[in-house]
Amino acid sequence: MNALTRRTGLSSALCAVLLASTSSRAQEVDPAAAQIEAFQASLLEVMKEGPTLGAKGRFRRLTPIVQRVFDLPLMTQFAVGPAWATMAASDRTALIEAFTRLSAASYAHNLTRFSGERFTVDPAVRTRGADKIVQAHLIPAHGDQVNIAYRMRDVSGTWKIVDVYYGAVSQLTTRRADFAGPLASGAAGLIAHLDALVAKLLA
Q: Domain residues for 54?
């Protein structure tokens, strides 16, 4: 075997090792964490186009992203609470749609532009019963880091967000408390309240 053949053989072996190592690392990425990484990448794309899109444009871009990543029916049911059990199917559907609009509008209102922010995801995903907790961080160009924890659940083979925690505060628990007053007027009252919030966020 000549020197060139040996070098070629060594190079091929090294490439094989590197490819195997890369493949192994890719396989080790938790699917719940991968979902959050993809979600945050989508948010950054919308932020970079934020001023051009405007609030309503960001809302339209974000709505299918929110629908894909969040388990909105489950989140709506929890936010509504015990009253959900006695609601008509049509009211439940209307509430899920209103909750979806509110979720997308909230992101559209808060993510107005890109100013050098970046997201990171902790690869160490915690398991909590049937759920997983993915810890992420929003790191602004200036100012303090924002810690965000996503509670994820396997929905028909896809990991979806079922709650978001800012620090120790559950967004879904906060929503449930906020919805209690309007819900006293029934599903129609809560839907009107949610639509009013959306209109204010997108104004």
A: 28-202
CATH number at residue 173: 3.10.450.710
Q: How many domains are contained in the chain?
A: 1
CA distance 76 to 100: 9
Q: Which two tokens stand for residue 72?
A: 């909105």
The pLDDT profile of the chain, 203 residues, written as one tens digit per residue, is 544 444 444 344 434 433 343 333 445 789 999 999 999 999 999 999 999 999 999 999 999 999 999 999 999 999 999 999 999 999 999 999 999 999 999 999 999 999 999 999 999 999 999 999 999 999 999 989 999 999 999 999 999 999 999 988 999 999 999 999 999 999 999 999 999 999 999 99
Encoded tokens for 94? 């209307």
Place of tokens 């919308």: 46
Q: pTM of this prediction?
A: 0.85
